[in-house]
Amino acid sequence: MDDFYCDEVLSGKTAVRVVAETADVLAFHHTQPHWPVHIVVVPKRHVPSLIDLGDADEGLLGKLLVVVREVARDVTERHGAARVVTNLGAYQDSKHLHFHVNSGAPNPS
User: Fold this and answer.
1) Residue 65 has what DSSP assignment?
2) Is 98 a catalytic residue?
3) In this structure, are strands 37-43 and 83-85 parallel, antiparallel, or unpaired?
4) pLDDT single digits (tens) 25-48
5) Given 30, 46, 79, 98, which residue is catalytic?
6) The predicted structure's pLDDT at residue 93
7) What dotted CATH number matches 4-103?
8) Which of 5, 37, 86, 109 could form a disulfide with 103 if both were Cys (CB 3.0 to 4.6 A apart)?
9) How far are the Cα atoms of 14, 55, 102, 103 from residue 85, in angstroms, in the given order?
């Protein structure tokens, strides 16, 4: 599966706990969290990655970053710190632009 977010989350096949939502962006708790606080923020349409926006324009990227900032601000206020991470190339498991907003020590594997 190359696009978990389109194939599972945005299609409704996999239920998620929504944190924030706009017409263009969805933020939700990760389905298999690696950190105690682990939120994923995705555009609601397919965008391959941060360096390959496909047919999306930078306006969508701006809308996505507004939500990332809001979620990161909330996590920082609630937990004292936050990380914002996106992956590219071989590190990007799902080929759909997404940001992880997380806090705390990684959960044991």
Assistant:
1) H
2) yes
3) unpaired
4) 999 999 999 999 999 999 999 999
5) 98
6) 87
7) 3.30.428.10
8) 37
9) 22, 23, 8, 11
- The answer to whether residues 102 and 38 touch, using CB atoms and an 8 Å cutoff, is yes
CA–CA distance, 35 with 91 (Å, rounded to integer): 18
Q: Domain boundaries in the chain?
A: 4-103
pLDDT higher than 80, residue 1:
no
Is residue 92's pLDDT more than 80?
A: yes
* Residue whose entry in the numeric block shows the structure tokens 């939500």: 67
Backbone dihedral angles phi then psi of residue 78, each to the nearest 5 degrees: -80, -35
pLDDT tens digits, one per residue of 42-74? 999 999 999 999 999 999 999 999 999 999 999
Per-residue burial over 8-28, b if 16 or more Cβ lie within 10 Å, else e, is bbbeeeeebeebbeeebbbbb
Closest residue by Cα to residue 19 from 105, 101, 103, 92? 101
